[in-house]
Write a structure and sequence with these properties.
The complex is a heterodimer. By secondary structure, chain A is of the alpha/beta class. Chain A has helices at 41-48, 74-78, 96-107, 111-124, 140-152, 170-185, 197-203; strands at 2-12, 15-25, 30-34, 56-61, 64-65, 81-84, 158-162, 189-194, 206-211, 214-219. Chain A has a 6-stranded mixed β-sheet with strand order 6-7-8-3-9-10, with helices on both faces. Chain A has a 4-stranded antiparallel β-sheet with strand order 2-1-4-5, with helices on one face. In chain A, α6 links the parallel β7 and β8 (189-194). Chain A is globular. The two termini of chain A are 30 Å apart. By secondary structure, chain B is an alpha+beta fold. Chain B has 2 domains: 2-54 and 168-300, no CATH class; 66-151, Alpha-Beta Plaits (2-Layer Sandwich). Chain B is 73% helix and 7% strand. Chain B is built from 11 helices and 4 strands; from the N terminus they run ααβαβααβαβααααα. Chain B has helices at residues 2-18, 20-56, 70-82, 94-104, 109-117, 137-144, 162-203, 206-215, 219-259, 265-271, 273-296, and strands at 60-64, 86-92, 126-131, 153-156. Chain B has a 4-stranded antiparallel β-sheet. Chain A binds chain B through residues 49, 51, 71, 75-79, 83, 89-93, 102-103, 105-108, 110-111, 150, and chain B through 3-4, 7, 14-15, 18-19, 207-208, 210-219, 221, 302.
Chain lengths: 227, 302
C-alpha cells in the first residue's frame, strides 16, 4: 500500500535527514516508526503528505508516486491520508464540530452526511459534550482527540500520526494510543512516529527504527532498541 | 459546485465575524484608504473647476477704430470663431460700450455729465476673445496682426498683459499636473498601507492555510473564504468612508462656497452621489479582493 524506495532527503551537506530509506507498509498494518529527535521520523511523514519533496527515491501510495503528483491532484491524495500532529494543528477559529466537519466539506460530503457522521466520530473519541468548544477552550488531550476525529471522519485508508502524544500526560497518552489501536482494528492502516519507549514496548507491533536517517531495524513485533 | 460555493461564502462571513479585531483593524485602514481616494478625487474636481474659472478670467480685447464698419467687425468675429484656438468671442458695440461705461461710473456724476456733453460716442467697439487656454493667445494675436485688419483695429490689449497671461498660464498648467501627480502618489501610498495590512492579516492566518491544505483542501476552497472576507472588508469600509464624507462635505461645502462661489461641493456630491458611492465601493472591493488574492498566494504552496 505504501512503499518507500531508496528515499533520501538532504537539506544541505551538513543536514541529511534521510538516507536510502526503503520499507513497505501493507493494508491494515500498524507500524511504529521510532528514533531519537532528528532521526528523520517527521521528515518521513512529511514526504508521505507531500509537504516536502525527497531529494531522491520514490514513495508509492497505492501505486501512485507521491513526489510526481501535480499541485492539482495533491488535495485528492491528501484526502486519502488522515494526519495527526504533535501540535494538533486544529483551526483556531472553528469549533471542535466545525474542525471535524471541515475534513468532510473538503471531500465534498453533503450537509446531511456531515450532520450524521460528525457527532458519531466525536462520540467515538469521547468529545460529544465539547462539540461547540473552540480549540482554545480544550485541554491538550481533548485537542488531540478532535484532531483524531478529524483524521478519521472521512474514512481514509491510512492514518499517519507524528508524535501524537508528545505534548500529553501519561493518562491522555494512553487514551490516544488506545484510540489508534481501535481505529486500526476497524481496518485502517496506522503509521505512528514516536520516541516513547513505553508505548512501543507495550504495543507489540511492527517497529521500524531510524538512526541518523537510516533504517537501523525493521522487526515485527519489534521493541524499542536504540544504540 | 453550488454546495462548495455556499460553504465558501458562509465560511467567509463566519471568519469575518470571528476574526473580530483583525476585521476591525483591516476595515479601519481600508476606510482611511478609501477616504483618501475619494478626497483626492474631490480635491481634483475642485482644483480643475477653480483653474477653469481662473482661465476664463484671462481674455484679450481687440479695439476698433471709431470709423470701422460693424459689418467688418462681425466678419472678423466669425473668422475668429472659426479658429481652432478660440473658445469664445464676444462683440461689444460702441453703444454697449457706452452703457457699460455709464453703469460702471453711475456714482460719478461729473464723469457722466462730461460724457453727455460730447456729441459723439467716444468709446470704441471691441471683441473680447477667450482662447481655449492661455498659451493660445500668441497665435490669436498673430492672426489679428495680418495686414487686412490693420486699418480697422486700433489696439489689442495683449502686449501689456502678455507677461501676466503667460505667467498665469504656466501656473495653471503646473498646478494641473502637480495636482494629478500628487493625487496619484497619495493614492498609491494609501493603497500600499491597506495592501500591507491585508498581507499582515493573512500572514497571521498562514498556519491555518497550511492546516487546510494538509487536510486536503483545494486551493480554491482555502482561498475562497479569504476572498469573501476581502469583499466584506471593501463593502463595510466603503459604507464607513461615506458616513464620514457626507457630513464632511456638508460641513466644508458651504464654507468653501462662501469663499469660492464657483464651487458648490454639496451640489456636486448630491448630483454624483450614486456614481461616487458605486466607484468607491468598487474600489474598496477591488482593493480587498486583490490584496487577499495576492497575499495568500505564497502560503498556498504547501
Amino acid at each position: 500500500m505504501i512503499k518507500f524506495e531508496n528515499v533520501s532527503k538532504i537539506y544541505n551537506s551538513h543536514s541529511v535527514a534521510l538516507k536510502d530509506v526503503s520499507f513497505e507498509v501493507s493494508h491494515h498494518e500498524f507500524v511504529s516508526v521510532v528514533g531519537k529527535s532528528g532521526a528523520g521520523k517527521t521528515t518521513l511523514l512529511k514526504l508521505l503528505l507531500a509537504e516536502e519533496k525527497p531529494t531522491g527515491g520514490k514513495i508509492f501510495f497505492n501505486r501512485q508516486n507521491i513526489p510526481t503528483v501535480s499541485q492539482n491532484e495533491l488535495p485528492i491524495l491528501r484526502r486519502q491520508i488522515g494526519a495527526i500532529f504533535q501540535d494538533f494543528k486544529l483551526l483556531p477559529n472553528k469549533t471542535a464540530y466545525e474542525n471535524v466537519a471541515f475534513a468532510m466539506q473538503v471531500v465534498g460530503k453533503s450537509e446531511l452526511e456531515i450532520k450524521s457522521d460528525v457527532p458519531k466520530v466525536l462520540d467515538l473519541v469521547g468529545l460529544k459534550d465539547k462539540a461547540n468548544n473552540f480549540p482554545r477552550e480544550l485541554s491538550g488531550g481533548e485537542k488531540q482527540r478532535v484532531a483524531i476525529a478529524r483524521a478519521l471522519v472521512h474514512r481514509p485508508s491510512v492514518i499517519v500520526a507524528d508524535e501524537p502524544t508528545g505534548n500529553l500526560d501519561p493518562i491522555n497518552t494512553w487514551d490516544i494510543i488506545r484510540l489508534l489501536i481501535k481505529i486500526n482494528e476497524l481496518g485502517t492502516t496506522v503509521i505512528l512516529a514516536t520516541h516513547d519507549k513505553e508505548i512501543i514496548n507495550a504495543l507489540e507491533k511492527r517497529v521500524v527504527s531510524l538512526e541518523g536517517g537510516v533504517v537501523a531495524r525493521d522487526e515485527n513485533p519489534g521493541r524499542y532498541i536504540l544504540s | 459546485m453550488i454546495l462548495t460555493l455556499n460553504r465558501i461564502i458562509k465560511s467567509g462571513f463566519v471568519n469575518f465575524w470571528r476574526n473580530g479585531w483583525l476585521s476591525t483593524a483591516t476595515v479601519l485602514i481600508m476606510t482611511v484608504t478609501l477616504l483618501a481616494w475619494t478626497s483626492i478625487f474631490l480635491l481634483n474636481v475642485m482644483l480643475t473647476s477653480v483653474l477653469g474659472v481662473l482661465e476664463e478670467k484671462v481674455d484679450i480685447s481687440v479695439y476698433f477704430n471709431l470709423d470701422a464698419k460693424e459689418a467688418d467687425i462681425l466678419a472678423l468675429k466669425s473668422k475668429l470663431d472659426n479658429l481652432e484656438e478660440v473658445k469664445n468671442v464676444e462683440y461689444v458695440s460702441t453703444g454697449e460700450a457706452l452703457e457699460i461705461f455709464k453703469k460702471r461710473h453711475s456714482d460719478d456724476e461729473i464723469l457722466l455729465k462730461s460724457v453727455q456733453e460730447l456729441s459723439d460716442n467716444p468709446l470704441e467697439a471691441s471683441l473680447n476673445v477667450l482662447a481655449k487656454d492661455a498659451s493660445k493667445y500668441e497665435t490669436v494675436v498673430s492672426f489679428l496682426g495680418q495686414n487686412q485688419f490693420e486699418n480697422i483695429i486700433s489696439k489689442i490689449n495683449y502686449a501689456e498683459n502678455k507677461i501676466v497671461i503667460e505667467r498665469l498660464g504656466n501656473i495653471i498648467s503646473v498646478l494641473r499636473q502637480s495636482g494629478l501627480v500628487a493625487g496619484l502618489i497619495l493614492a498609491l501610498i494609501a493603497f500600499l498601507v491597506a495592501f500591507n495590512t491585508v498581507r499582515l492579516a493573512i500572514y497571521s492566518s498562514r498556519e491555518e492555510i497550511t492546516i487546510m491544505k494538509l487536510v486536503g483542501a483545494s486551493n480554491r476552497f482555502v482561498r475562497g473564504p479569504f476572498i469573501v472576507e476581502g469583499v466584506l472588508h471593501g463593502l463595510v469600509s466603503s459604507a464607513f468612508a461615506f458616513m464620514v464624507i457626507i457630513p464632511g462635505v456638508a460641513f466644508i461645502g458651504p464654507k468653501l462656497f462662501n469663499f469660492l462661489p464657483e464651487i458648490n461641493l454639496v451640489n456636486y456630491l448630491g448630483d454624483n452621489f450614486w456614481q461616487l458611492l458605486f466607484f468607491q465601493t468598487l474600489g474598496g472591493i477591488t482593493l480587498g479582493v486583490f490584496s487577499s488574492w495576492f497575499a495568500i498566494r505564497k502560503y498556498l504552496k504547501v
